[in-house]
Automatic annotation (TrEMBL):
The keyword Transmembrane helix does not apply. The lineage of its organism: Bacteria, Pseudomonadati, Pseudomonadota, Alphaproteobacteria, Acetobacterales. GO terms for molecular function: ATP binding; ATP hydrolysis activity. Pfam families: ABC_tran (PF00005). Residues 3-237 form the ABC transporter domain. Transmembrane segments: none annotated. This is ATP-binding cassette domain-containing protein. One of its GO terms (biological process) is quaternary ammonium group transport. Keywords: ATP-binding, Nucleotide-binding, Transport. The keyword Transport applies. SUPFAM superfamilies: MOP-like, P-loop containing nucleoside triphosphate hydrolases. It comes from the Bacteria.
Length: 366
């Protein structure tokens, strides 16, 4: 089902947790709310769940205005990291909970509840654990139980607040892939709150980046990486070297990067420049003279990561050369393939330096 939030404001004493949030999700979409601590992610999710209410603004789910509709009647499944399972209930009783607390008229029969619980435990791939208690299963299995419990009421909207936080890295990867598969199979709409951008990138169709109670950009992972709307997004999503620059008469001079001025469309004044490591590429060793000094080299599966000493700055870049050709202490030529500049009045631009690549060595650019 579709979800529309319009002008949501939520204030707590002295804090504006949400400062006019508008966001529309398509039915069947998997969206992530991503942002630093305190940016308002959980508050927004709680408002969607009906566990909290906005001071201003509206929430519509499948076109229905939800002002005043209590959580239990929203048909929303919620999984919180700290929303622990009931320890005194078996796994099966935990999963059945949302059905058993329904008013008598809407409550399925015990036989129907047992059938649904069995189907759900099958779905989350722990059919044999029904009779165990939560502290008799692993963290990953507990998370699956929490999901089964949220899905028991057959929600068409699933809200997940840092649901994988308690899991170790390997299990986490496996469980989140499985959650995405489940989302696709059930055809539900899901909203995930996380501050882990890898998680958001892997799971979500679109990501809403939040900063201080506002959504600063809502887009696909690719759009956020390639066309960040603000300097905050450029610095927050993906890795980037952050440099200062100056624009004069349409030419950008980057401090600490010995490249010739780059033609840009942003206005004159000071500028912030972001260069992704993959856009700063080691070209070749220059021998002992000239070039930029390689400070660190780290092998990765597909290519080698390097840290380059450029003036006062240490910049992350990449190299496709065999390891023995690029080692700490060597001096190399480097190509700048692409940069994003944020200039005066919030204008920004992603620039592919004309003539493809700007090659530079320390002190002398070609
Ligand atoms: N019940 C509350 N009373 C007072 N302030 C609150 C309350 N709930 C949230 N806040 C404040 O509102 C702001 C947003 O909090 P929220 O929990 O939504 O952020 P978040 O992005 O989910 O952060 P985190 O990643 O740390 O969980 C914070 O400044 C927080 O301190």
């Amino acid at each position: 089902m579709s979800v529309e939030m319009e002008g949501i404001v939520r204030r707590f004493a002295g804090t504006t947790a949400l400062d006019g949030v508008s966001l529309t999700l398509k039915a069947g979409e998997f969206a992530a709310l991503l942002g630093p601590s305190g940016s308002g992610k959980t508050t927004l999710l709680r408002i969607l769940a009906g566990l909290d209410f906005p001071d201003a603004g509206r929430v519509r789910i499948a076109g229905v205005d939800l002002a005043g509709v209590p959580a239990r009647q929203r048909g929303v499944g919620v999984v919180f990291q700290h929303y622990a399972l009931f320890r005194h209930m078996t796994i099966a009783e935990n999963v059945a909970f949302g059905l058993r607390v329904r008013p008598r008229r809407q409550r399925p029969s015990e036989a129907e509840i047992a059938r649904r619980v069995a189907t759900l435990l099958e779905l989350v791939q722990i059919p044999d654990l029904a009779a165990r208690y939560p502290d008799q299963v692993s963290g990953g299995q507990r998370q699956r139980v929490a999901l089964a419990r949220a899905l028991a009421i057959e929600p068409s909207l699933l809200l997940l607040d840092e649901p994988f936080g308690a899991l170790d890295a390997l299990v986490r990867k496996e469980v989140r892939r499985w959650v995405r598969g489940l989302h696709d199979r059930l055809g539900i709409t899901s909203v995930l709150v996380t501050h882990d951008q890898d998680e958001a990138m892997e799971l979500a169709d679109r990501i809403a980046v939040m900063d201080r109670g506002r959504i600063v950009q809502f887009g696909t992972p690719r759009a956020l990486l390639d066309d960040p709307a603000t300097a905050f997004v450029a610095g927050f999503i993906g890795e980037a070297n952050r440099l200062r620059g100056e624009v004069r008469g349409g030419w950008l001079q980057i401090r600490d990067l010995p490249v010739p001025a780059v033609r840009v469309a942003v206005g004159d004044g000071s500028a912030e420049v972001f260069v992704r490591p993959e856009d700063l590429v080691v070209e070749a060793s220059t021998g002992c003279d000239g070039g930029v000094e390689v400070a660190l080299v780290r092998a990765e599966r597909s290519r080698t990561r390097v840290v380059l000493r450029c003036g006062a700055a240490m910049l992350d870049g990449v190299s496709d050369h065999p390891d023995d050709q690029v080692a700490p202490g060597m001096r190399v030529g480097v190509a700048l393939r692409r940069l994003t500049v944020f200039g005066a009045e919030g204008l920004h631009e992603t620039v592919l330096p004309t003539r493809g690549t700007v090659r530079f060595t320390e002190g002398a650019a070609t």
